[in-house]
Amino acid sequence: MLTPTTTISDANNVSRNTVAEVYTQVITDLTTAEAKLPASNGIFANKYAAAALLARVYLQQGNYPAAAAAASRVISSNRFSLNPNYGDNFLSSTSLLANTQEDIFALQFSAQSGTNDLNTFYSQNRRADVEIQQQFISLFEPGDDRSTLYQKVNGVYYTNKYDVLYGNIKLIRLDEMYLIRAEANFRAGTQVGAAPLGDINTIRQRAHLPALAAVTLPAILKERRLELAFEGFRLGDVKRNMESAFDPLTNTTLPWNSPKLVFPIPLPQINANPNLVQNAGY
Amino acid sequence: MKKNPFTSPRYILLLLGWLTAFAAFAQTRQLSGRVTDRVTGQGLPGVTVLVTGTTVGASTNADGSFSLAAPASATTLTFSSIGYTTASLPIGTNPTFAIALAPDQKVLSEAVVVGYGSQAKADITGSVTQLSGNVVQNQPVQSFEQAIQGRTPGVVINQGSGKLGQGINIQVRGTSSVTASNQPLYVIDGIPITSADQSSGATTTEPLNPLADLNPNDIESISILKDASASAIYGSRASNGVVIITTKKGRQGETKVTAGYYYGVSAPTRERQFLNASQYNQLLGESLINAGYSTTKTLPGDFSNYFGLDYNSPYDTNWSNQAFRNQGHYRPFGDAANVSQYDFSASGGDAKTRFYLSGTFNDQKGIIVGNRFRRGSLRLNLDHSIRDNLKVGINTSLARTVNDRVAGDNDFSNPLQLNALAPTQPVIDPATGLFNAQTIYYNALIDQELGSNRAGIYRSFSSAYLNFVPIKGLTLRTEVGGDFLDLNEDLVRGAGTQTGGATGYAISAQTQAVNYTNNNTATYVLDLGTDHHLDVLAGESYQRSDTKLTSAEGRGFPTNDFTRVASAAVKTSGSQSTGTGYGILSYFARVNYNFQGKYLIGGSVRRDGSSRFGLNTRYGNFGAASVGYLLSEESFLKGNAVVNFLKLRASYGLTGNSEVGNFAARSLVGAQPYADQSGTFISSALGDNNLTWENTKQTDFGVEFGFLQNRITGEVDVYQKQTDKLLLNRQLQLTSGFSNVTQNVGALRNRGLEIALNGRILDGDFKWNLGANMSFNRNLITSLTTPIIPGGAIISRVQQGEPLGVFYTKRYAGVDPANGDALYYQADGSKSNDYGAAPDQKVGNPNPKFTGGVNTNFSFKGFDLSALGQFSYGNDIYNAAGVYQSTGFNNYLDNQTVDQLNRWQKPGDITDVPKSSFGSGNGIGNSSRFIQDGSFFRIKNVTLGYSLPADIANRGYMKSVRIYVTAQNLATFTKYTGYDPEVNTFGLGDGSSLYRNIALGHDFYTPPLAKTFLAGVNVGF
């Protein structure tokens, strides 16, 4: 593993570790952090931020009991609660967006700390590069409050999640913890903290949707997809769930393990470190 | 020089007294006359007229007239002037004289400005190109380098774009650096100046040219030091060559007054052809149908549903012309591109005090919408002799430059990017009457209406000197100089612009760059008998440069009438102040020895210490040695009818380059506040205590010759420059925690040949001169452990065994006749449509095989005609915008160049334009498909002038009147189909010198140069 250095030598030409080794290191780091961080730490990461990230890692790894337990530690701390409206997480009447009761960890931005590039690319007020396909919009049930964050301008849908120019970037929220706990419990067949149905209905209720009577894995994953859309989760979920991705522009379906769903290692890095091996497909 | 016993003040007084007494009762005779130039027929001012053998004399006034009282015993008059052969006339009975002096064809006695002094051309053992200031005067340019293109063997000047006052790329004998700057050192009147871009980067990432603050009309001469022998006296900053500019000085004689005016109109050198509305609909329609999105029937609906385009639009907008003022057409007055200049100067003085003062106002409305350059400048150069052996002087200038700038090439606000817009969309939205905001990409014209981008500069190049000659031959000189640059950049992007968003944006940045220099030199000239001539220089120099930046940035303005940051609702992160600086301390010496005017030996050394380098390696030694041999002074050639002049010379030396960041040698800690709390971070750039100069070892062999009474003169040089310890910004393994380090790694080489020839073909009443020069340079990276690959839209790279900036990408193999797919050469040489599998390979070279220029001058009576041509051969251009504008809608909706109409349509079609299938990506990747030969020949300048006969001018109380017409960039011959083959975008990459050095020959929505026609008048009083 890597150790801090102030000189560069051949020892810095590290090779790629295995997936298992990386998981081990990440989980060790986060477990240590959760143990050492205080419960309250101002704007910096606290104990629960570490637990929440650990929950995310365990879910991706497929360690469902550990994921449910970590998410439950965050929820049961009772330090966080869902905002009354989903949009409260993203919308603001000013150019600033503060932390809310739902935020477990957020990057703090202000007018003095530079602009948020997500705003540049997503916001319809700016370059509006990210155009959202109808196939995604169609997933929302009628009355889903979350769908109001997608607006059609000149025939094209854009998301309003990054309209606040100097908004904080919400990296980990409580709603994700409910979704992780629901999915992990469902997959593990457990009810750590709460039953999956209860957690999903908590999410649906906040989205102004009727409660479900029973829950299935596809229902949980769909809730997750809609709740966390355009926040950086989709690629990991596609791979984790071995889904395929459809690209309407080229009319092609990409399987979850397609090399096209893995970025290349930047060429300058391969040049700097000859021990790096390029990813397949590049 | 003969020993003069009368140098002490006491003797002079005595002498004066004696002369006055003598004049009081001696018989004198009043003589008068006029001295003219034998070539031009015009009066020659400042000619010294002496009664031969005495000190009685006068100098001619501005029209060449003189009068003097000669002693009765006088028998002849001697007429002498620098640059002319000295002539004598016997004093007969006629008291009026008319004499025409011939220009001194021994151009070899011409003084050439070198570092910390000047030398006779014949005695120089280095390679120096000196140009007269005449060639840069009254040209429709912003800075003098633009006017010397095609006149400088060994120096390649690329303007890069038609943006006014924009940075220019100059290479003296090739590129000597990869990461550090490879631009030459500029010295004005002995003081190194700030020549690197000082703009904050907040308004555009593209560079301003700090040399545009110098009025070209004030330039007396430009001297370019090319080989080590000439440049090593500037030590650590000489590897890229040194450009020494000398400004005009006053001369003893009647005051000479000039006034001038010109006015001209401009248009782009070339415009590009894009699809018109019906072609756009046709090709886009075909591509949608081919991609399976539409059928012929559904096209109108799909155009509107998918893209908001009107298939039946009544509009046919030529967007590409909208980038230019008046749609790129000439128009004598009004809102079209034009240029004008008013200038005034007065110079003269007496034995004690000489002066030159000038004022110029220059106003250029560029060809690109919104681009305008204005400069007002004043200069006063003053020299005063306190005593015979003690002189003081100042050279001072103040310029105000206002540049209304154009957005960077890689910016949606760049007006040239308008060519991507759909021709079926109107410029003005009929619903609002305002600029159309519903275009497929941002309509950059909105920026013109709702914003501004202005750089305002105050600049002063000022220096003062004290010159003392304590004993004969020894000159002590001290000079202090300052280059003061104050730059204010104001960018306003109102609400409704892309940058301004919903509420508007503004930034105001103030940069102050101050560059102080103190030079102290001692020069000793010694003649031992007639055989030995020794010229020794020793000196010390200290330079310090400080730069400060203060800026204020805000968003949220009540209305677009509010443009100052004070009115902004939120002061944003661009509100800051920073500072940086460096210092250089130097000691230097030079010796030139000349035996019998035949054998020349020179040597120079310099020791430099720079604050930029590592603790262990802060000082470095540089130097050069040279020899020269004037064969024409040998008995076997002396008096030869054919060969008048022949000199061989050779030099070898070591120079350096230190143009890296001020703190590149250090590991830094930075402050990084977060969430209103202070904090620090470790910079991702690693320091190196052993960082030191890039070293260039240069060898030069030259021959200079003059044949047939010097009617044919010329100079040929071959050189080799080997640069090692490259100052390389080396990429590190990010896993180390650092991103890069500046280290001395790698080596490169430039080899070249320069040829310059000049001929006086006709030399009677009708005169015809012809000159030509040609330069070959071969650049090669001789050692580099890992290639530097900028990536993205830049296909240039730096790789061992290849020239700098060589083009590496996929090699395009044309179109598959069976299915219209773009094909690429694979590693095994086969062709395939698999873009990803095709290897990157060497597909082009942006470095020209050779460059040069031709110039010719005719004169007859009062008429003069000159023409200048410039050429570049064998350089490739990569149109990085091709992936958007020449890919038949396979990329997106961008309007396409007309060549896309030749696309593949059905099996069996033979073409090199792939099938159009919307969004398919067919043929859109970087490849050799977008590379073209960038060779060109350009008629750079043609000027026709007419000087009124003196007697007519005199009637209007004027000494001289010349009217002229000039055509700039009159015609360009090239196979390149883009806007202009003289292109070098600054828009790709991050704007650092790394990208500027490497990304050669890239075109990216880069504006062309201007073609200008102007008429002007110069009047002398």
Could you list some keywords that capture this structure?
heterodimer; A: alpha+beta; Serine Threonine Protein Phosphatase 5, Tetratricopeptide repeat; 2 domains; two-stranded parallel sheet; 10 helices; 38% helix; B: 1021 residues; mainly beta; Immunoglobulin-like; 9 helices; globular; disordered N terminus
Layout of SSEs?
The complex is a heterodimer of chains A (282) and B (1021).
Chain A: H1 19-36, H2 47-61, H3 64-76, E1 96-97, E2 103-107, H4 117-122, H5 134-137, E3 150-153, E4 156-159, E5 166-167, E6 169-173, H6 174-188, H7 196-206, H8 217-227, H9 234-240, E7 245-247, E8 252-254, H10 267-272
Parallel strand pairs in A: 1-5
Antiparallel strand pairs in A: 2-6, 3-4, 7-8
Chain B: H1 9-25, E1 28-37, E2 48-51, E3 57-59, E4 65-71, E5 76-80, E6 87-90, E7 96-101, E8 111-114, E9 117-120, E10 128-132, E11 155-158, E12 169-172, E13 185-188, E14 191-192, E15 219-225, H2 228-231, E16 242-247, E17 253-268, H3 277-290, H4 299-307, H5 319-322, E18 338-349, E19 353-365, E20 372-387, E21 390-404, H6 445-450, E22 451-468, E23 474-493, E24 505-528, E25 532-555, E26 570-571, E27 576-595, E28 599-610, E29 619-630, E30 643-657, E31 669-671, E32 680-682, E33 685-686, E34 694-707, E35 712-724, E36 727-731, E37 740-744, E38 747-763, E39 766-783, E40 796-797, E41 806-809, E42 812-815, E43 822-825, E44 831-832, E45 841-844, E46 850-860, E47 863-873, E48 876-879, H7 882-885, E49 931-933, E50 936-947, H8 950-955, E51 960-974, H9 993-998, E52 1002-1003, E53 1010-1020
Parallel strand pairs in B: 1-7, 13-16, 33-37, 48-52
Antiparallel strand pairs in B: 1-4, 2-3, 2-5, 5-6, 8-9, 10-15, 11-12, 13-14, 15-16, 17-18, 17-53, 18-19, 19-20, 20-21, 21-22, 22-23, 23-24, 24-25, 25-26, 25-27, 27-28, 28-29, 29-30, 30-34, 31-32, 34-35, 35-38, 36-37, 38-39, 39-46, 40-41, 41-45, 42-43, 43-44, 46-47, 47-50, 48-49, 50-51, 51-53
